[in-house]
C-alpha cells in the first residue's frame, strides 16, 4: 500500500473509531430517547423529531454490529519539546527608526508614511520587535542571497537548541518538514537543512510554502499523519517566515500593512511516536482538525500576493478579510466542538441553531463554552483587536488571551511560528499543569484554519529561564497593547 493510501486509511480508521466509541456509550441511547420524549410531550414541530430519531435508529442498528469491528488504535503522537528563536537585541527596530528609514528610502510619499505610522501605533506590538539585517539597510536588501542568509539565521539556531535539549543528533530525525510561506528557493529549504546537518539519505523531507500563518499547524497535522504510517519515528518541524524577500516598496495601502506587522521569528518542534518518547515528552497530541474556504471567491481573494500598478510585488489585504477570517474560524470550531464538547453544550448550541432557522431568525446562536474541556488558548497573533474579538467569540477572559496579546506585544506577528511563542509564554508563567489541554489555532491565507489540541502529560516547570521569554517574563503582563 502506498503512502497516500496509508494516510487515507489512517484518517478513516481514526474517524470510524471515534464514531464507534460515541455510539457505544449507553448514555447516548438514554439521551436520545429522553430528547424524543420531551419533544413529543411539548408537541414541537415535526421537523425537530428528525434528528433524535435518526440518531436513535443509527444507534440501534449499529450497536449490534460493533463487535464485528476490530480497529487498531492510532499511534499516539508526542510533542517531545520545542524551541523558539530569540532575535538579538541589535535587530530591534523601534517605530521611530522604522519610519525614519522608510522616509529616507525615497520610495514612500507622506501619505504612505503616515499610514504606516498609524498602523504601527494600533498594531499591538511594542518597540522591542525585530527585523532581519537585510531590512535595516536603506534601501532594504531584498535579493536572493540575503533571504538565504536570513534562512540560516532563523532556522539553524532553533534546530541546534532543540537537538541539545532533546539529546538527539541530526541522524535521529526520520521526518523533516519545513514551512515558510513567502520564500521558496531551489534547492528547497528542507534540502538546505539536510545539507547543513548532513542528515540521513533516507530521511523523508517535505517543504510547505504559500500556506500563510497556519503553516506551522498544517505541518503538525502532516507530521501526525506521517507518524501514523511510519512507526518508531521522530519528526522535526521547522517553522518560520522570511521577511527580506517580502518587503513591499510601493504605495498601495492594502499592501503596506504587512511591512508594519510581520516580525522576525522561528520555531523548531520535535514530534515522536516512539514508546520511549512518552517518558520525556511534554504533550500528547489529542486532536487535530483542519478546514478551508478556498472554494469561495471572496474568501480566496481576501489576501493575495500580486503586483501593483507599477509592477511591485506585495500582499493585498482586502476589506473582506476580517469577515472571511470569522467565517473560517466559525466553521472550524463548530465542527471541532461537535466532536469534543460535553453533551449539554452541544445540545444548547444545536437547539439555538434550530430555533434561529425555524422559529425566530433574530435569535442569537449559542456559542459553546470551550473552557469546559480546554484550559489554555494560543490564538492567531494578527493584531490586538483581532485577538480580543476571537476571545469574545470563544468566551475567553483577559487571562485566556494574555499569551496571544503578550506574544504580539513582545515579538510582533511572526506568522506561523507565533503559536509556539504563545505556548512558551504559558510554560514560562508555570501555568500548564499535567492533564491540562492547550488549543492552538492557526489561521492563514487561502483561507484555512487548523486546530491543534495538546494534552500535557508531565509537570512543566523552570521554563522561565529558557527560551524566548528568559529574563523578560516577569515584565508581563503589562497594561496591554492597544486594541
Automatic annotation (TrEMBL):
Provide the reaction this enzyme catalyses. a very-long-chain acyl-CoA + malonyl-CoA + H(+) = a very-long-chain 3-oxoacyl-CoA + CO2 + CoA
Q: Which residues form the FAE domain?
A: 74-356
For the keyword Membrane, the answer is no
Pfam families, sorted: ACP_syn_III_C, FAE1_CUT1_RppA
Q: Where is the Beta-ketoacyl-[acyl-carrier-protein] synthase III C-terminal domain?
A: 374-455
Taxonomically, the superkingdom here is Eukaryota
The UniProt keyword set, sorted, is:
Acyltransferase, Transferase
Give the main EC class.
Answer: transferase
Pathway of this protein? Lipid metabolism; fatty acid biosynthesis
Indicate the secretion signal residues. none
Query: Which InterPro entries does the record associate with it?
Result: 3-ktacl-CoA_syn (IPR012392), ACP_syn_III_C (IPR013747), FAE1_typ3_polyketide_synth (IPR013601), Thiolase-like (IPR016039)
User: Has keyword Acyltransferase?
Assistant: yes
EC numbers: 2.3.1.-
Q: Which family does it belong to?
A: Belongs to the thiolase-like superfamily. Chalcone/stilbene synthases family.
Under what name is this protein listed?
3-ketoacyl-CoA synthase
Amino acid at each position: 500500500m502506498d503512502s497516500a493510501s496509508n494516510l487515507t486509511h489512517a484518517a478513516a480508521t481514526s474517524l470510524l473509531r471515534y464514531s464507534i466509541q460515541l455510539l457505544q456509550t449507553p448514555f447516548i441511547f438514554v439521551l436520545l430517547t429522553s430528547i424524543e420524549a420531551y419533544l413529543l410531550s411539548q408537541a414541537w414541530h415535526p421537523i425537530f423529531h428528525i434528528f433524535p430519531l435518526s440518531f436513535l435508529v443509527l444507534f440501534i442498528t449499529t450497536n449490534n454490529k460493533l463487535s464485528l469491528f476490530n480497529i487498531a488504535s492510532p499511534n499516539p503522537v508526542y510533542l517531545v519539546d520545542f524551541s523558539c528563536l530569540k532575535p538579538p537585541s541589535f535587530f530591534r527596530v523601534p517605530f521611530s527608526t522604522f519610519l525614519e528609514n522608510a522616509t529616507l528610502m525615497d520610495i514612500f510619499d507622506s501619505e504612505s508614511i503616515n499610514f504606516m505610522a498609524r498602523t504601527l501605533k494600533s498594531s499591538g506590538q511594542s518597540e522591542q520587535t525585530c527585523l532581519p539585517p537585510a531590512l535595516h539597510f536603506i534601501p532594504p536588501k531584498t535579493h536572493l542571497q540575503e533571504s538565504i542568509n536570513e534562512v540560516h539565521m532563523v532556522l539553524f539556531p532553533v534546530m541546534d537548541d532543540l537537538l541539545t535539549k532533546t539529546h538527539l543528533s541530526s541522524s535521529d530525525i526520520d521526518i523533516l518538514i519545513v514551512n515558510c510561506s513567502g520564500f521558496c528557493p531551489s534547492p528547497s529549504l528542507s534540502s538546505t537543512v539536510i545539507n547543513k546537518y548532513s542528515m540521513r539519505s533516507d530521511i523523508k523531507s517535505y517543504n510547505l510554502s504559500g500556506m500563510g500563518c497556519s503553516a506551522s499547524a498544517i505541518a503538525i497535522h502532516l507530521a501526525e499523519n506521517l507518524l501514523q504510517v511510519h512507526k518508531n519515528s521522530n519528526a522535526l518541524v521547522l517553522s518560520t517566515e522570511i521577511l527580506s524577500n517580502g518587503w513591499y516598496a510601493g504605495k498601495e495601502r492594502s499592501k503596506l500593512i504587512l511591512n508594519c506587522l510581520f516580525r522576525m521569528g522561528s520555531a523548531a518542534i520535535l514530534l515522536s511516536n516512539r514508546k520511549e518518547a512518552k517518558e520525556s515528552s511534554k504533550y500528547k497530541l489529542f486532536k487535530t482538525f483542519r478546514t478551508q474556504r478556498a472554494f469561495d471567491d471572496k474568501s480566496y481573494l481576501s489576501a493575495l500576493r500580486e503586483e501593483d500598478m507599477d509592477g511591485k510585488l506585495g500582499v493585498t489585504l482586502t476589506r473582506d478579510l476580517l469577515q472571511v477570517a470569522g467565517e473560517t474560524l466559525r466553521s472550524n470550531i463548530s465542527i471541532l466542538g461537535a466532536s469534543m464538547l460535553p453533551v449539554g453544550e452541544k445540545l444548547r448550541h444545536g437547539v439555538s441553531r434550530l430555533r434561529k432557522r425555524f422559529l425566530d431568525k433574530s435569535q442569537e446562536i449559542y456559542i459553546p463554552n470551550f473552557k469546559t474541556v480546554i484550559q489554555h488558548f494560543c490564538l492567531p497573533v494578527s493584531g490586538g483587536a483581532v485577538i480580543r474579538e476571537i476571545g469574545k467569540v470563544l468566551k475567553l477572559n483577559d487571562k485566556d488571551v494574555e499569551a496571544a496579546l503578550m506574544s504580539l506585544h513582545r515579538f510582533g506577528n511572526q506568522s506561523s511560528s507565533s503559536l509556539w511563542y504563545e505556548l512558551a509564554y504559558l510554560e514560562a508563567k508555570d501555568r500548564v499543569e499535567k492533564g491540562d489541554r492547550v488549543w492552538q489555532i492557526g489561521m492563514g491565507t487561502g483561507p484555512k484554519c487548523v486546530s491543534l489540541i495538546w494534552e500535557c502529560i508531565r509537570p512543566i516547570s523552570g521554563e522561565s529561564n529558557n527560551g524566548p521569554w528568559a529574563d523578560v517574563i516577569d515584565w508581563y503582563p503589562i497594561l496591554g497593547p492597544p486594541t
